């Protein structure tokens, strides 16, 4: 329904052609703006209500296990069953941080949720069989867990924006309230957070729409095509500025495979687009300070490169 409305506004009311770059970019912008804000509102509200039933200490016990790495594994597995795109996973990430969950554990979730998803799994299963699909899940989990462990070991909590910790302090105060009061709290919290981050969201989606509409379709094939030993890192570098979910990137993935691009290179590109994106960076900049944001992107990008080379070796 949202896509139909976006098409109506851009191609019907505005009269732009679906084949034009401007029309394609604006259609992407309208549709993704509606979709992201709907997801943000729904997810933030739901997380706020759920969090009102869990004190920070109880939430911390669920994901921050006494045994090393268990919290990262649980968070990465949780990410698989909550298949959000990179931007819409951010509100849950904020809720985890505010609830007192260790920073490394929250990053494991932030990576796995958009990276390991059912659409990519079905695609790989259909193209290459269940073994390759299983390797994809395993590789995604390893990336998410490793990224979370590395960031957790670096002890970078001081690079989270100060307001996040301030919200965390007051989170337990609503624990004994009635359900109506919890809903009111969730409503007020959602409105407050959206007022704070909406400009970043719009700018991020706008940048993604521009790249979507105006980036040459053969850009990846041109620079990271078959025979280039640096194809995997180049695919990641090209993929990071883009923004899409797995469903949106599949047509490009299929076209690249048909033109002979190595599977590992294509998967690295898909992982970079779905798990790392410029719009996500813009939104996260309102939550993370620059040093932590760069550390997150650098760690995940390096892990994706390793996975891409691994797939190229075994396929």
Automatic annotation (TrEMBL):
Annotated compartments: Cell membrane
TM region(s), chain numbering: 36-54, 74-97, 122-151, 197-215, 230-253, 260-278, 290-311
Predominant localisation class: membrane
Keyword Cell inner membrane carried by entry: no
Membrane-protein topology: Multi-pass membrane protein
Family listed: Belongs to the UPF0718 family.
Protein name: Uncharacterized membrane protein, YraQ family
